[in-house]
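Q: Could you fold this chain for me?
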Amino acid sequence: MRLKNKVILVTASTRGIGLSIVKACAKEGAIVCIAARNLEKAQTVADQLHAEGGLVHCVYNDATKPETFVSMVEDTVRKAGRIDVLVNNFGTSDPGKDVDFSRTDPEVFMNTVQLNLRSVFMASQAAAKHMASQGGGSIINISSVGGAVPDISQIAYGTGKAAINYLTKLIAVHEAKHHIRCNAVMPGMTATEAVTQHLSDDFRSLFLKHIPLSRIGQPEEIAAAVVYFAGDESAYTTGQVISVSGGFGLATPLYGELSGKDERR
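A: Sure. Below is the predicted structure, expressed as structure tokens.
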């Protein structure tokens, strides 16, 4: 019960990593608010967790409607009485349009960066106002290793996540006076539906060669990092951007070619 009675708002949390975060926080005793565009789906998740003893509310958020990043925070405070933790899990990209540098349309690039960055800035700004009046809080941004290691595709998504990494540190510095911490988690390849159903076996095998731990991460492992940043165990940790990616991006580019071979040097 490391998060007992903490009120935690999680965006984009009816599936994938977001859903795992909701479940992990509820299991640790938090009062969780699911922010989603599809409230019917969110309520189904809430009902399941209620049946397991969880305390869960639903609030509306549509990333294409900027005002809902403010209203979801206000709704959370109205329903739960306060907001102790904000988890900015929303992220978006269209892989068919967000491709490489030479082919990505400028409008697609700018819109993708704006959607990803705006979601964190507006939600954090709204939540911080309440946290400051309460005596503190924790903001946790779900970034991506794509924001730290340039990729060959989805360049707008990676640029947006890189900006979120910077914004994480900026918020940490500016809001420390209000006892508000801000940290980020960078997932690597994670076994969500999008990965397990839409990536080819060949691509996954190629990617795995560059992960020192030699496996895909689980959504629950991302959620575990969020629970740490949400709880009092991380009370003296702020402005940190940690990679939960099995070591992706740490090794020499030759690692993927030489890994597992006797001729490694």
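A (continued): Residues 64 and 73 are 16 Å apart (CA to CA).
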